User: What shape does this take?
Amino acid sequence: TAWEGIQFHLHAGSEHTIDGERYDLEMHTVHFPPAGVSPEEGFIASAMGLVFSVDKYTADLTFAEQQVIDIFFESMKWTVNGPTVDLVAYGSLMEMVDFNNRWVYKGSVTTPPCATNIYWNVLSTVYPI
Assistant: This one.
């Protein structure tokens, strides 16, 4: 069954740590099962975490790949309350990132009431911002 991407959001200060290190930004993409379909394996949602850092990134990118990240973030309208978007280059970013190297675990959401049974995928590559 195909899960549907519902939204993405950003956390200033990564919610996940890698080898005990917290990074500058983490983006979460949230997916829900299709309406009317019971969640597989008891999962109520899935989430994908993508970590970014100003100076401690691990990605070795070409100039074109760096431009994909820049265009993604530049397409958001940043205010003191966070970003708003009309149209964002999300697909280009997702086509570029490395999904083959990640941690997968059963966890919870990171905001109260912290619902459980979330299927997490956290990419292990840290990308520059």
